[in-house]
Write a structure and sequence with these properties.
This protein has 107 residues and is mainly beta. Helices cover 11% and strands 36% of the residues. The chain has 1 helix and 5 strands. The chain has one helix at 2-13; strands spanning 19-27, 31-35, 41-45, 60-71, 74-80. The protein has a 5-stranded mixed barrel.
Length: 107
Amino acid sequence: LELEKDSIYNKYIDKVGNIINAEVYQIWKKEMLLLDDEGNELLLPKTEQIPSDFYRKGETARAVVARVDNKNNNPKIILSRNNNYHFTAQPNTAQPLVPLSTCSLVP
């Protein structure tokens, strides 16, 4: 159990500032509980949500890993969807992007 908690902490401490996808598991008044692909619990507080966002259980949410707390060897992963985190999404391709100046239209 201790090693499992350490591995969760180490996994997410390296992902701070990165975008992740997670499934909405439970919705409370002040926060939402999301689960990642491995079933790890992630928290999305209301203060870190976009006010116009509305989620239902089972939907997928994209968010930034804002911070990872490890109090009493109990990792707590906090996500954010608000505008305080400026990030750029990386394309899911291994090919390099072609500069627009080298493109041309072929009739």
